[in-house]
Amino acid sequence: MGNVPISFKHKDMKQLFRECGKIEKVWFRSVPVEQNKLGKKANFILGKYQEGADSMNGYVRFSTKEEAEQACKLNGTVVQEHTLRVFLCLDDNMDYETTIFVGNLPLDVREEE
Question: pTM score > 0.90 for this model?
Answer without folding.
Answer: no
